[in-house]
């Protein structure tokens, strides 16, 4: 139910609608959906427009858009436009002030999308122990903000979403409970089920890959091929690099080019065997090839953000005010998920630092826990400035970064989008257990 | 918020009270070789759990009955080796020994215990497994030399609480109790996590006698253990407890300890 009406509204606003909404550029239906992930295996979930992932929304940078959302479920919902510089009222986080859409209700999001790049949209509600709600469902979709000028050149563009389903809370070796998943998919299908990705020899394919998993980091390789990473979280990297595999933490995106120069039938899949066995893979088939899909099992995991960083000297920048953020867990029993704190407090008791518009800030993430955390800042992008074991860096702009257990990461951003701004771990179970805080503008 | 449970106080009071009750009762010999309420989880495939169960009976049966050694001041050392087979099955093997003044260190017997559990993929709200144990013990330590047990296991973690029940059924294959049919020997545990590393709780063990014709309460085996579990590492299992038996059919005071070490035979690989 994807509609294109051509209507554009200049201001950013969200209206909750009691009546049939006026035509919009897009309409998103939130409704129950039975997703067939494998032959005779169905996951009962909630999806956008009865498909997983939801429809690809192609928006023009700077061109206002109106999106109607119809919530056909029995629970309140909200849609977050991840990676966009939006006003708090439409960003899609109730903590910032975006209204919930009640079950059976409708809402109308009107905003001007920016910046250009590969973004995504997804639910942003509380799940708690219910591993069939919020990000555990199929409520995620691709959002491509096309630049005003110089659109990307490529022979084919393929969007892929990595997701995990049918979670159970099981004891981990760390002494608490974590979700463990029975099924892992690419674009809602397990390896070998559904249509393969069809490519032609000699073409350059642009892969836009999203990790929409509620909690899991994923490693992806394409047998026989290498990825040239050109953008992270939709933002071009200073030094594109060719790598054998990609690592994507929850909410991260990678844009990579692949030269299709090895005809055959190949598997693109999760590098770790148990995740591929759970289904995370997809067949890539060259035109004219029909042999059995081939997989070359890597024997190590390789990824380093900093290979993509700028190499030129760091230019003089305005002094940034440092805000240290210490991540810690609180044991809640072997039969419970840990509680999470930022600077010793769990949301909503967490502090709300006051930002001054125009000021540059350095967020110093100090992860004192034994878990990795993909932390996300709403409504802004940040620049990676210091990664564990490395001197200062610059040039990589993201909205989500994985802070490994027991390490420290520094990022910088300019406070240039006034309004309440949410910061949180993008693991659903962590944000539900207190790993959130709100920045306020003076 | 105070995160300390005043268990040492009520533990001491309970011990004194129960000891006062059972002090006047005679005790009957019983096989306290492996004193453990089973959890539903199984050992992972390609890994082995080796446990040493050390049980001492400071106050038990003082007289030899029907050729069975008295349990008083017996020290039991049991080695339990459990091998994971699949993600839902394992097999355990026991070597029972006893040490006592006048008898030295003696081999008592061996048991084998296959176990299966409900796989995680079934999404059951509680952990469920089924264990069966077959074994031999020498007649000087148990009148019944060949026995069989089937033990359903149900457990559940609820935040800081842990609950487990083992309603076991026993059958003698060789010995004077062959004609008794199936006996009912339930076990249960309630635990509480004081911290991530330290849990405390109560374990209950009983032998009610034959199904359909339970022994009188006086002659039933009834034991309550006050235990602590130390979760210092996923590789180690440490359990310590003191148990009291208030009925005539039970050893009055037993001290138990379990130390277990988990060995993984999987080749470490980041891509497993």
Overview of the molecule:
- The complex is a heterodimer of chains A (442) and B (272).
- Chain A is mainly beta and 442 residues long.
- Chain A has helices at 88-91, 273-277, 428-432, and strands spanning 13-17, 26-38, 41-48, 54-60, 65-71, 79-82, 106-111, 117-123, 140-146, 156-171, 177-186, 197-199, 204-211, 218-222, 227-232, 235-243, 246-248, 253-259, 265-270, 281-286, 321-330, 339-342, 354-355, 360-367, 373-377, 382-386, 397-398, 400-403, 408-414, 421-425, 436-441.
- Chain A has three helices and 31 strands.
- In chain A, strand 2 (26-38) and strand 3 (41-48) form a beta hairpin.
- In chain A, the strands form six sheets. A six-stranded mixed β-sheet of chain A has the order 11-10-13-18-15-16, with no helix packed on it.
- Chain A is globular.
- Chain B has 272 residues and is mainly β.
- Chain B has one helix and 14 strands; from the N terminus they run αββββββββββββββ.
- Chain B has a twelve-stranded antiparallel beta barrel with strand order 1-2-3-4-5-6-7-8-9-12-13-14.
- The longest helix of chain B is centred in the first third of the chain and has 16 residues, at 7-22.
Counted by DSSP, the helix tally of chain B is 1
Shape label of chain A: globular
The SSE order of chain B reads HEEEEEEEEEEEEEE
User: How can the largest sheet of chain B be summarized?
Assistant: 12 strands, antiparallel, barrel
Would you tell me the structural class of the helices and strands of chain B? mainly beta
Our Rg estimate of chain B from Cα atoms comes to 19 Å
In order across it, which strands form the biggest sheet of chain A?
Answer: 11-10-13-18-15-16
Strand content of chain B: over 45%
Distance between the termini of chain A: 42 Å
Say what oligomer this is: heterodimer
Low-confidence stretches of chain A: 1-11
Question: What portion of residues of chain B is helical?
Answer: under 10%
